[in-house]
Write a structure and sequence with these properties.
The structure is a homodimer. Chain A is α/β, with parallel strands linked by helices. Chain A contains 13 helices and 10 strands. Chain A has 2 domains: 238 residues, 3-Layer(aba) Sandwich (Rossmann fold); 35 residues, no CATH class. Chain A has a 6-stranded mixed β-sheet with strand order 5-4-3-6-8-7, with helices on both faces. The longest helix of chain A has 19 residues. The first copy, chain A, is globular. The interface between A and B is medium-sized, with 23 and 23 residues.
Chain lengths: 308, 308
C-alpha cells in the first residue's frame, strides 16, 4: 500500500479510514486531526493554560506531546494512585518525559493526601471495585488541581476505544443521564469546575499507540493490574469483534451517538443543576451536603486522625 | 433446585430471573407472562380477531398455541418463501399443527403471487441480501393478508433475542427513526395498516423453546439457510457473550430501552407522516409514489408478463 498523502511506501494502515501513511505523513495526519477536533469542539484557544492529566501510558503522554508540539501552554499532572510497582514505574516514565522536554509537571500522590487514600486501600475500606474507587478519586483530585492552579482547561487522553466502551456500558442500561452528558467537552461550571476536554476521542487506540511509537515516546506498556478483566475491558473485547466484522463500526457508533445527542435525543435527561459547595471539602457537587468523593471516603475522620 | 411456585423438583432454570419451575408450573408462568404482556401493552382484547404469522419455527407455533389455548380467536398465516426444502418442511409443520388442533390457516406462497417472487429469485434480481429482500416481502404480504381478512391485529413470534439483536443494530448506528418506532405494539394506521404486536418480546429464546418442548410442539428445528452467518446472528452471538457475563443483561437492555423511549428519548424522531396509497399495489406507504416493496420489485412488469 502507498501513502495516501505522498505516495511513498505506507507503514501505517488505517482500516477504518481505508487510508495508509508513511511515518512523516502519519504524524501530519495525526496532528491535523487533533487540531480539527480542538477547533471543531471549541476545546481551547491559543492563550489557554492546559492541565494535561498524564498516567504514564501511551494516550496521555501522546496527548501531552502533541499539544506541546502545537505550541500550547501545557502543564502535566501526575496523580500517584498507590498501586505498587505499577504506580512507581508510571511516575518514572512521566518524570523522564517532562524532564527530557523541559515541560512543567505537577506531581501529587494519594498516599500523601491522607492515610488510607491509596486506591487499593480505598477500595478495600469502602468495599468498592478498585476501578470505581479510582475513578472517583481521580475526578476529585484532578478537579482540585485544575482549580488550585487556575487552569483554563483539563485535558485527558481518552481515546475512541475508551469512549465507545463507556458509551456501550451507558447504552446497555440506557443510563439517559450519563448519555446526556457524554461528550468530548464538559463545560466549566459557574461554581468552579474546570472545563474538561478529550482531544483524542475520535482516535482508535491503535492510532494513539502508533503516534507514540513513531514519536519514540517511552511509556508504561503494562496495563493497570486492577483493569485486567474488568467490565470496561470486557466491553472493549465485544467492540473489537464488532470492528473486525465491520471496520469503522466503533467510530460510527460514537459519531452517530454524538449526532443523535446533538439533535436532542437525551436533552430532557440533562438536568442542569445548581451546584453546591461540598460541606467537607468545598468542591462543587450536584446535591447539597457532601460530594461523591467525601461520601465515599470520610475525609473528616482522616483529617482529625492526622491532627491528633 | 426446587420449583419457585410449588417446591417440586425444578426442571427449567431461568438464570436471568433467578427462578426454577417444574413442567406444569413453567406452563403456568409462561401463560401468565403472555397475559400480562398483552394487557400491559394493550395488544388486543377478548373479541379481537388475531392473525398469527407462523413460519413453522418454535416461536410462532408456540405463540399460536398459547393464544389459542387462552381462548383467543386466532387464524394462522403461512407465507411460503420459496426457499427450497426448508420452505417445504416448514409448511408441512404448520399444516400438521393447524390440522391437529382444528385451527384455521391461511396459506399463501410467494411463487404463486407472481413469477420470480420467491425470496432467492428476488434477492438475485434485486442484488439484495436474501434477509433484506425477505423482510420487505413479508411486511408486504403480511399487511395485505391482514387487511384482506379484516383482522384486528397481526401477531408475530419475535422473542427477546430477536428484539435485542435489532435494538443493538439500530443503536450501533443510532438510527433514531427506527429507535423511535421499535416497540411491542405498532399501532394501526388510519390508512389501513393493521396493528402489529409481539407478545413474546420479553421472553428469551430459551423460554419459548422450552414452552414448545413442554407442549410437544413439532416445529422446524433447522434455521433458514440464508440466516446462517447473517448480521442479526452476529449480534446475537455478541449479546450471548454479554448475557453469559451478566445474566439478565439482554432483558435489562430491552426494558431500559422501552423505559427511555417511553420517557421521550426518541420522540422527536418519530415523524408521524400521513400515509399514501402506493401507486402500484395500493398498500399504505410513507412517501407518495410507490411503496418499498414495489420500488424493490417492479410488480407492474411482472403482472404484464403474466397477462401477455
Amino acid at each position: 500500500m502507498k501513502c495516501t498523502r505522498c505516495k511513498a511506501k505506507a507503514e501505517v494502515h488505517l482500516r477504518a479510514h481505508n487510508a495508509g501513511f508513511c511515518r512523516p505523513c502519519y504524524l501530519e495526519y495525526f496532528r491535523r486531526h487533533v487540531e480539527r477536533a480542538v477547533k471543531h469542539e471549541r476545546m481551547f484557544g491559543p492563550g489557554d493554560r492546559i492541565l494535561v492529566a498524564v498516567s504514564g501510558g501511551k494516550d496521555s503522554l501522546a496527548l501531552w506531546d502533541v499539544l506541546a508540539g502545537m505550541g500550547h501552554q501545557t502543564t502535566g499532572l501526575y496523580l500517584g494512585l498507590g498501586i505498587g510497582a505499577y504506580s512507581d514505574r508510571s511516575r518514572e516514565k512521566v518524570e523522564a518525559f517532562a524532564t527530557a522536554r523541559g515541560l512543567p509537571l505537577v506531581v501529587r500522590s494519594l498516599a500523601a493526601e491522607g492515610p488510607g487514600l491509596a486506591v487499593p486501600d480505598v477500595a478495600a475500606s469502602t468495599r468498592r471495585m478498585p476501578c470505581a474507587a479510582c475513578g472517583a478519586m481521580k475526578r476529585h483530585f484532578f478537579d482540585a488541581a485544575a482549580h488550585e492552579g487556575a487552569f483554563d482547561v483539563l485535558a485527558t487522553g481518552h481515546n475512541l476505544d475508551d469512549e465507545v466502551a463507556v458509551l456501550m456500558q451507558n447504552t446497555l442500561r440506557w443510563q439517559t443521564g450519563y448519555l446526556a452528558r457524554q461528550a468530548p467537552v464538559l463545560p466549566a461550571s459557574r461554581e468552579g469546575l474546570t472545563r474538561k476536554v478529550k482531544p483524542f476521542c475520535r482516535f482508535y487506540e491503535r492510532e494513539t499507540a502508533t503516534y507514540a511509537l513513531v514519536r519514540s515516546i517511552d511509556y508504561v506498556y503494562e496495563e493497570c493490574p486492577h483493569a485486567v478483566g474488568n467490565l470496561t475491558n470486557f466491553y472493549k473485547t465485544l467492540l473489537n469483534q464488532l470492528e473486525t466484522q465491520s471496520p469503522g463500526a466503533k467510530l460510527g457508533f460514537y459519531l452517530e451517538f454524538l449526532r443523535a445527542r446533538g439533535e436532542g435525543a437525551f436533552e430532557q435527561f440533562n438536568k442542569v443543576e445548581t451546584l453546591h459547595a461540598c460541606e467537607t471539602c468545598g468542591q462543587p457537587t450536584s446535591a447539597p451536603g457532601r460530594c461523591a468523593f467525601c461520601r465515599m471516603w470520610d475525609i473528616e475522620k482522616l483529617t482529625s486522625a492526622v491532627v491528633q
